[in-house]
Every structure is written in structure tokens, then in C-alpha cells.
Amino acid sequence: MKRKSILYKDLEVSRAKEIYDESCKNILANKIILAWIMKSCMKEYKDCSIRDIADHYIEGIPEISQREVHRDEAPASDPGKIRGENTEDKAVNEGIVRYDIMFRAILPQGQEKIELIINIEAQKDFYPGYPLIKRGIYYGCRMISSQYGTIFTNSHYEKIQKVYSIWICFNPPEKRKNSINIYSVKEKSVVGKVKEKEKILENEYGITMTYEEKEEVEKMCNLSEYVWEKGLTYGELQNLVRMVLKKMRKDVSCEITAELFEEPVEKIRKIYEVAEKYAPEYDIELICRELAA
Fold first, then answer.
1. Strand partners, 97
2. Which segments of the chain does DSSP mark as H helices, in order?
3. CA 276 to CA 270: how far, in whole Å?
4. Which of 13, 131, 149, 217 is the most exposed place for a label (fewest CB within 10 A)?
5. Which residues make Cβ contacts (< 8 Å) with residue 98, sequence separation at least 6?
6. What distances in angstroms separate CA 80 from CA 60, 86, 93, 128, 266, one per listed residue?
7. Tens of pLDDT along 188-221?
8. Does residue 232 register a pLDDT over 60?
9. CA 115 – CA 160 distance, rounded (Å)
């Protein structure tokens, strides 16, 4: 009897792993399974029923999306499977990034009619030799950057669709079991008060301000905080400055101007003071830059 070589056995093991991987993806690509994942991990669907998510919100063309399946070649025999996105992101200098499962879903009724792009990854090894979190972040970034040329072009970044990359780890360490961790891009406001900034300058940078300098910083910070609290955009600040300049050219006092525009006197006075530096041209762009600094 012929004995199988080590290479042959290795190939058998490798093939078995491939079959296992594909079977895992086939199970995860079932709409009901995806619906449970979405309801558990995505705030947009937490109040939806599993049936509604599976029947109405997941992309409706029933095809499975495997690692190397092309969109026009995927089978459409099982209505419980989804078609999804092309699972290969190709770029000349980036090689190929393959996603386990990729699909689109629309937001529930009553919310804005937009689509989400969702990636599901089945991860067997919790410690693959590199930071798994960074790989997940990279996948999310790649899902965003690959939208250029199809979903948006030029500078129309407002059209970028929200993405999710959900990783299911099968063999996590004990401390990570039965848990869901979320990593997201969030805004953090770091606008501080004058005293806080003064303390930072002195303690961290060794800069001690004179009384006159402190007074100038106080004025500057007060205006910056005012712009922030009022929710003024840069364009709105420009409009305010433009209106104030019209009154300045007519020699209207800052007190009267403040009353006319229903704005605090100290805010209008600061605009007057900055604008006077740029007389007689009164360059609005330069004035606004200094005010918003």
C-alpha cells in the first residue's frame, strides 16, 4: 500500500481548512444570521425585528458573496443568501484586499434613505502576529476609500456612505469571551477656557504672559468661544463681519452696531478692533482668519 507523503497530507489539511473557511462564510452569509449580527452590533437596527432586517433592509438580491466571487457569476439559487458587493478591492499599488462577506443594507424606514456598506469577517486566530484591531480599522478605511469613483467623485465627500467592519472571533482569550467591543470615529471637542490655556502655557511651555497679553488672549478666547457657542460657521462669521464693516464705514459706534444686530457689545468691539488693523481696505478674509484663530 502506498503511503501518503507529508506534502500530500499538508495539502489535504490545507484543503480541509479551505472547506471549513468557506462553510463558515456560507453560514454567516445567511440573511437570518446577518440580521442577528446587525441587530446586536449596529445601533441603526437595534429596534428592528430580525425578520424585518432580513427581508427588508439587507440587500435583496439573493446571492452569496465569497472571497473570489465576481458579481455577475455568483449563484442565485438560495433566497436565504445575499449577493453583496464584489469582495475584492483592487488597486494598482495596494494589491488585493479580500473580504469574507460584503453587502449593502438600507436604513430602517423613518430614517434618511441612505445605504450602509457592511463587512463581516470570521476570525479564527485572535493573535495572528499583528494587531487585529489595526487590521479591522484598515478594512474600514479601505471600504471608505474604495467608494471614490463609484459613489462620489471630486470633492463630494458628503456622499460617502457609512461603513461597518464586524469581526467575529471564534477563539478569544477568557477575558474577551462573550463581549462586544466597538471602535469608531468620534468627535471630541477640546475648546478650553482662558484660565486653562494660561495654565497650560505656563506649566507646559514655560510662557508667562504679561497683563496686557492676558487681556488680549481673554478677548481672543471670548470671541472664539462665542463663535463656538453660537454655532457659527466660517461663512456666517464672514457675513457678520461684512455687516459690521458697513456700519464702521458709516462711523456707527460699536455699541449701536451691537444693538442693531442684537449681539453682545464686547463681541462687536473685538471685530471693530481687529478690522481697524486692516483699514482702509478691510480685507474680510484676513479679518475673519484673525478672529477665528
1. 89
2. 6-28, 31-41, 50-52, 132-145, 194-205, 211-230, 234-249, 254-261, 265-276, 284-292
3. 10
4. 149
5. 67, 68, 87, 88
6. 10, 18, 37, 32, 65
7. 766 556 667 667 667 766 666 665 655 665 555 5
8. no
9. 10
Cα angle value 62/31/144 (rounded, 5°): 85
The tens digit of pLDDT for each residue in 130-172 reads 898 998 998 898 888 888 888 888 888 888 999 999 999 988 8
The full length of the chain comes to 293
What residue type is assigned to position 230 of the chain?
K
Reading phi first (left if > 0) and then psi (alpha if -120 to 50, else beta), residue 166 is in: beta
Question: What pLDDT digit, counting tens, does each position of 88-97 carry?
Answer: 555 444 445 5
Separation CA 268–CA 100 (nearest Å): 58
Please enumerate in sequence order all residues whose Cβ is within 8 A of that of 92, keeping only pairs 6 or more positions apart, or say none.
none
- Reduced to 3 states (helix: H, G, I; strand: E, B; else coil), residue 185 is coil
In the chain, % of residues over pLDDT 70: 63
Partners of 101 in beta bridges:
120
Q: Peptide bond preceding 280: is omega within 30 degrees of 0, i.e. cis? A: yes
Strands 163-169 and 95-98: unpaired
The pTM assigned to this predicted structure is: 0.54
